[in-house]
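Forwarding the complex inputs:
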Amino acid sequence: MMSHAMIEINELTLDYEFGGRLMRALDQVSFKLERGEVLGVAGESGCGKSTLGLSIIRLLPKIAKIKGGGILFKGRDLLKLSEEQMNREIRGKEISMIFQNPQSALNPVFKVETQMTDVLLYQSRYQNEGRRKTRNEIKKEAIAKLKETGIADPAERISNYPFEFSGGMKQRVMIAMALSSKTSLLIADEPTTALDVTIEAQILELIRDMHAKYKTSILYISHDLGVLSEISKRIMVMYAGRIFEMGQTEVVLQEPRHPYSAALLESLPGTHTKRDRLLSLPDFVPSLDRLPSGCSFHTRCRFSKEICHQKVPPLLEVSTGHWSACFLEHQDKGKHKWKWF
Amino acid sequence: MNLQSSPEIIGATLASGMYIKRSWSSKARVAFRAIFKVRGALWGSIWVAVMISFAIFAPWLSPADPNVQDLDHLFASPSFQHPMGTDYLGRDLLSRMIYGCRIAMMVAFGAATLATIFGVILGVTAGYSEGGKIDYALILIFDVVRAFPQIILAIAIIAVLGPSILNLILALAFTGFPFYGRLTRAQAMVVKESDYVKAAVSMGLKHHKIILQHIIPNILIPVIVCLGMDLPWYIIYEAGLSFLGLGVRPPTASWGIMLRDGYTYIDTSPWMILWPALAIASAMLAFSFFSQGIKAALDPKKRER
Amino acid sequence: MFKYIVKRLLWMLPTLLGVMLLLFSLTYFLPGDPVSILLGPRATPDLVVLIKERLRLNDPIHVRLGYYLLGVLKGDLGTSVWSGYQVRSLIAKELPHTIVLTFTSLGVAALFSIFIGVFAAMRQENRKGFTVTIVSLLSVAAPDFVWALLLVLFFCIKLPLFPALGAGVKGDLIDMAVHLILPATALAIPWFGYLSRLTQESMNEVLGSDYIRTARAFAIPKRIIAYRYALKNGIIPTITVLGMGVGKLLGGAVFVEIIFNRPGMGKLIVDAVYQRDLPVVQGAILVTALMFVLANLLADISYAFLDPRIQYD
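Prediction (whole assembly, three chains):
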């Protein structure tokens, strides 16, 4: 019996086509997510991390075209499954996804009860669990889940409309819907970005508890390195559709092995000794339809050399379990400290 | 002039004045360019212009007198002599169509202009004095008039005043003004909260000046767009009322009267009814595309790269 | 919910009062001597005086107004000068026909547009999509009575498929339905374009929204998403517009009834106008206005029902 990684992405390449323009959102992205681990995906807006999450669960908009690569989930290529199969086996069952904006994630004109029971109803229906469950049984299940995620008075509140919940509570509802004993993978797309810091801490704790309880693998997407340092064991840094660095979170955050990761860390205010100015990189993130040749970061990188213009740096293992996509790093292997200031 | 204001507010006022002035000509230029970009807008504008020219230059453009009866050629199909055929009294349909266009444009623009002016004045007043007694009274007036389907109220007014073009214009203007009233009221309520209006108020500018200089210029664009969409309806109401005999009086040629005649003789000659129907349809489409063009042009969300 | 309804009903009262005042002033300002016009050659001086007395034309304006308002509240809308019948019985006879026609057109318009709109949205067409453009062009092209005329021309004269006149044999539902098809369609056509585009845009917006994405992430079947989750949000603008359109439909019904020679309020009003039968004109228009106001109220209430957030405004 071969033990598969939970998720194995191989050379995934994806373009957004609209208005005649071709935006390369993902470029030969490859990585593995092991069973039961929490892998963080870091990067600025537009780097492709959300697209990555949506690709796995295949909720991309019509303009997104996959140009190459495969997504293996427990050994099966998800890209080869039909829509019907995705619905029947994957979505909301083996793989669940929660999103960034809890405010708009629930349908405003239906009660929470309706939405949750619908989800659970279709879940059980698809899985042909013996006899059909009644709405009442499902309602009880839903109430139990709400309780599990920390909603007070769940039996009463389930009859409320979404606008009667606060942001944090709505996210708890989402987590309640997303997690069950059958969920193997949870994709969390910036679930706490829209929440206050204190609520954020609560939700993070809730996710950690759920992770401990159900041993779900989690792909945690966030631009907030602080959050990722708390919740993920491994982390990968993305930029303009490519993975630049990947490794143990502690290691990457303390000793980054890529100029971009280093820049990200250095630009966080307050993480080092007092300075006059904040670090900001020159120029802007390149538009995805006009990526520079070679390394997509070279136009802004103060360390770039001739080779960086010419060839795309591959993601290579520069030490055990630590990968970097920078030619200079490949050469010097950790000797370079990537200090920007 | 009261100088309770800080330099920021003075600056804002001056800037807002510049904003409004500059935006006029640039908006016009944008609108002009858009007419060529948005699909159909060009054709719509052309056709609207054509109809207006027919209306103005009818006596010169029309091949024959619309009322002359050619009793030898009744119900004629289109021919060289009568490009659109003739009606039940032998009158040339093309000429009647052209003069009908004149009536349509007169009634439409006349009534629409009146309705707009009246509606804008009342609406802006209502919006500006939001929540006050004046506001409530004006809303009530709007709602009372709006409680009737436009055509039916027009019928009632014509019944009282008697059918004639002028009465038609008045009746239609009266039934139409609440539309502009409510539109401008809603806009005025928003505009009066904007920074430059507040700045003007803090500088002691009198109410009517504020309305004239700041509020009205900023509500005009949507009003013009709505006017473009609304105009064809006046043409339709004229046609409808004349169809019922409550509008223009025969033998004056109007599209409505021609529809009536055509209806009476519908089994004898399809031409009598076809041309005015097509004319009304084309007018509706033309104005519709035209105003869509303007709307798309001035929609701040739709910026081309 | 209840409070909202009460609020709206309360606002209706001054509006209706204004409506009655408006109607009253119309008849008050009627030029010419209505009695002589009415009686025509039969007008002897004594008769004129008598009629004037009966119609209270000599009383001061506030008295006449008072009698009028009282009468309306009691349900008495006056007597037809032309036929002598009570206005309210005339209306009662004609009103059902108009209501049937109006609602049938509403139904036709709604069903067709919602179907087209959802269809176009599910195919992920954008605003300039094929389906909706065609439908829009056709429908914007002409107003209801022109469509009525064209329909008569093509489907009654050129191709004798449908009856052109009348409402059909009373009691024979099939016959009456057949007679309803063309008029209801004529009234509904002008709405197809706008309504289906509106539905499509609204559905597009809804389908792209976060909560629909959530539903898809949890594998709710596509059909359920479209017709349950999305539709309830998506048809809100359509229903609102439909409600507001009842007035235009009522107005258009006037013409359609005349063109198709159907019984109804349209015919009643227009004939009364020709005959200078003021009480009938007044009463019929009052009832029409009342129906219009009620229709708007219903539209607002159903809007509040569909979107529960609106009541808390």
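Chains B and A do not touch (no CB pair under 8 Å).
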